[in-house]
Design brief:
2 domains, eight-stranded parallel β-sheet, 6 helices, alpha/beta, Spore Coat Polysaccharide Biosynthesis Protein SpsA, Chain A, UDP N-Acetylglucosamine Acyltransferase, domain 1, homotrimer
């Protein structure tokens, strides 16, 4: 059925679990923000009316391509209500902006959407997911059980917020009627009330891509997703590739890029405007923002680099470096434990599984890292921080901190007998 | 004279001074074990009957190409007796498997061997060697003086165990007759008894190659010996050499090897099956086992690498890395003292001269070394160990240990005035 | 006017503020000492009689191309008097050997020099300079005010010692007459006395290059000056440049130099006799002395390297390395503060502005630096010193010292549960 639907793209969250990176929806992929990529996908699927619900911090300039409203009050219910005046059509589709899904889901919604039924999406899971489980009665959704706990799942269908309502009026009536005593559950409480009142909810079963983006290392998951869309090489006319450099696999190289002597590029790879890939560097399966400099002898592998990032003889593996990060010569972002085990990360006091055995560092904006620094796998470094030369960083560092090594020395006269002779070097060619 | 001789290749030792490397006779050179290379040399010289005397740990599968007997009891005398049933000829030649000598020695033995005389080899030395010295009476060996001490040498001929007996029966009679009260001297006591009883022993003077292999750094000496046998390049058909790589000097490259962009190979060099020489790497005068990966920007010089060794932007100089060793980015095996003096090594509580001013690390199997580690010259690292990032290792580490740095930090607010500003980096291209 | 003038080149100072480098006048640039380059410039301007005033330490072999006299007594007055017997002409020109100026100054002097007037040079300054200020009365110099202090400058003309006297006899008479009670001011006292007695002193105004060389980092300023004179490439016949190496910009490469695989050279650049630029190295805007070896994977940028300097996978930025300095693999001379602020240096107990935000290390002769060392920006290392592996050096080190790290380790059994697993490495290609 071809009907006109308003899509509400909810993005009013603070993205605090995405620290030390900036707001997840602003993260740039191949020259566009994650939000704009989401909007682009919706448009490509045929949605014409899209409204973004933002928050006071992000403001209304969050996306330039669609109307944006700043959320009043907390919770998804409040978010939907905030957008009331922007809704131009009767049918609406409510989506979490930070859920990356396949366009197939939206196409299916468009196919089955009609005047007679609400639709919720049930994502078929094999392992427990801490979300809302849909309990079915035939095709009808009987009710929703929130976070039942592992082992108590009432079905194998977890609700993926992609909610179709044939009448926004009905939804708004219920939202206004149900008291918003708990902002976190207000929207789900409303859906439950609608179900109880006899509104028909059908489940759309879905099994394809679903990446609910919460954690900073998921920037790498998104990167892989968008890099996979580069199918063949595009090299801008003003880009200069030195004749001794080598390129294999699909690369997307923007205007003004310079690739210097003996650089090796392996796609899929994206290099933003005016960035320089220095001589003797290796860069592969990565995104590099604009105006960045990958200095001499660097190795950048499966990593996301923002704009104006400066490297110099570094190893950057499975890492995320935000805008304006600079690293001194010889510093290394280690990306594998010695026991090759899974890497964990502490977020808001909780030890979180990353489901990755390869993960480097996650570094906030404007941070400067000195020479010969070692950052251990999975470590997060806040924005505006400084890490001094020789630091071995094993724990997260908050924003706006300086961290330096206290190193003890022995200084003795050079002619001292039986002195320890440590520090061998090489003298041969 | 062309006679049929059984060669007893004594290899019943524990190879304990070869720690942290595995048994010296099992060390692989150009795809074959040291033992098999020794057997090969004997066969090339014309010996057809070769028996290896092994120990309970090594077992009888030690060499697949010749009969192997497990030694019963201790000492060389016991070793010879253990092989009794394997000896098919009257004349026998007793050799220490770990003595590397020139084939010229064996050819000379074959020339002068006959029915009428026993032959011991006298190695002409200029400096003191802690072995048995041969005292001559004309061409006849009068007796043997064990370890006379420096300055008390009775001759300039040290006994190199390559003992020819025209009658194994006579030898066995004496070995059985002389009481084995001291396993270490039983065999020499037997020889002395034979001399006293009137058996004629002639000395064969020898001055060419003799490498009695005891210590782990001698794996490098053996490596040099076998690499020198590569006279011209052999590159297997399935090996892939990138067009930007350069090769000079004789190299032996096995099937499935990949040499990536801008790699520089300098022979003599051996690269085992399916190994990868990563881009921007330098490798020369070295052996690399099979399934190893020399990651980006590594420098491997005069070093022995086993199978499944993983490097990444390392300097490996004059070092031995056993199978399954992995090293993190930027770690360095230093191979020269700052004063460029001789490197010593402690073995079983004794400080041993290595007679080398260039020697890196000696690393046992399955050890993992983190990023930015510095190992000082001559340091030995046991098997199954882990060295954490940033460790400066100056002493040997036993098997099965983890070694980590305790590093002290100062963490202050970034806007603190008059804070130390350490850790300079570079920001230019 | 074309007259015959004797030039007195005063070089009797100890160059102590130039520590840890050797005497500033002996510093080699493009194959010649700074002194010889100064003499060369004077000769090129047309001066035929040049006398160097040296000191007892430097001796008379200081420059082989012109007569050299050893100074007796202290101060510039004593220096001039010491040269009395060497002065062959009536007119003389007194110059500080360590003032680098444009040849235009000398040409102007030659133009206006005559029998009737003394000439002092006034360098037009915009900011305060701690020297002697010239006070004018029309074209005549009325008197000189020494170091008036910032804000009290009596004019904008600072005296640059390039003093012309039509009669050396008159100068010597006054120098002998004025008592040398203060060696530091004796010469200026003499000039003041001459002015008072009615001798006419004219000021020659000058605004071009003036580099009064005092501090070791000024070796880099001199380097830039002399490198800028290389206008086109000169590569000696016996130099060998590998076909995979790349060269851009003007380079001066001496006999016997070898440039190995994948090296990148960016001029202006000078490489002395028989030096080797190792494979995978980057070298630019630098001077390398003779017999030096830039080992594998080094990055040398805007730096001065003496003779017999050995590098190996180092980053050398904005640094000066004296003769016979060697560095171990992975050591870095950091050249930029994390806050990108100005770098200061302590000299004789005083904190001196370097007016540089990019400055690496300044290293004296024969010093050896181990592997993975980090030297912070602006640090000075004395001659004959040793820096052990892993040292983070943040302060100057005197001559003849050894400096080593005291590092604490935790060593535990490998199978210990819940052990910290630090030190991640990479295992992928």
């Amino acid at each position: 059925m071809n009907i006109n639907i308003t899509v509400l793209l909810l993005s009013g969250g603070t993205s605090s679990r995405f620290w030390p990176l900036t707001h997840k929806m602003s993260q740039q992929f191949l020259g566009k923000s994650f939000l704009d990529r989401q909007i682009e996908q919706l448009k490509d699927c045929g949605f014409k009316n899209i409204v973004v619900v933002s928050n006071t911090k992000l403001g209304t300039d969050f996306s330039s391509s669609v109307p944006t409203v700043v959320q009043k009050g907390n919770g998804q219910g409040a978010a939907i209500l905030s957008a009331a005046t922007y809704i131009k059509t009767k049918p609406i589709l409510v989506i979490n902006a930070d859920d990356l899904v396949s366009p197939l889901l939206y196409k299916k919604i468009l196919e089955i959407a009609g005047a007679d039924k609400n639709i919720l999406v049930g994502y078929k899971t094999k392992r427990y997911f801490p979300g809302g489980y849909l309990v079915l009665n035939g095709k009808k959704i009987a009710h929703i059980v929130e976070k039942p706990g592992e082992g108590n799942e009432p079905s194998s269908f977890v609700r993926l917020v992609c909610d179709y309502f044939p009448s926004s009026d009905v939804l708004f009536n219920f939202l206004n009627k149900i008291p918003n005593t708990n902002a976190d559950t207000h929207y789900e409480d409303t859906l439950t009330a609608m179900m109880k009142s006899g509104e028909f909810f059908e489940m759309l079963e879905y099994e394809d891509v679903w990446i609910p983006v919460k954690y900073p290392w998921q920037a790498l998951t998104l990167m892989d997703h968008y890099l996979a869309q580069i199918k063949k090489s595009t090299i801008a006319k003003s880009a200069m590739i030195h004749e001794t450099a080598t390129i294999s696999g699909p690369v997307f190289i923007e205007e003004g890029v310079r690739v210097l002597e003996y650089a090796k590029l392996t796609g899929p790879l994206y290099i933003g405007k005016n960035s320089i890939i220095g001589n003797h560097s290796l860069i592969r399966y990565s995104i590099v923002g604009k105006n960045s400099v990958i200095g001499f002898g660097s190795d950048v592998t499966r990593s996301y680099l923002g704009s104006n990032v400066w490297l110099h003889s570094n190893y950057i593996g499975d890492s995320v470096l935000s805008d304006n990060v600079a690293m001194g010569a010889g510093s290394v972002l280690a990306n594998l434990r010695l026991d090759e085990g899974e890497i964990f990360s502490e977020i808001k006091g909780e030890r979180i599984r990353t489901h990755r055995s390869k993960l480097g560092a996650l570094i906030g904006e404007n941070s400067k890292i000195g020479v010969s620094v070692q950052i251990m796998p999975g470590v997060k470094i806040g924005a505006d921080s400084q890490i001094g030369a020789g630091v071995l960083l094993q724990q997260d560092l908050p924003n706006h901190k300086k961290c330096f090594v206290k190193q003890s020395h022995v200084i003795i006269d050079n002619h001292t007998r039986k002195s320890p002779d440590r520090g061998g070097f090489r003298k041969n060619i």
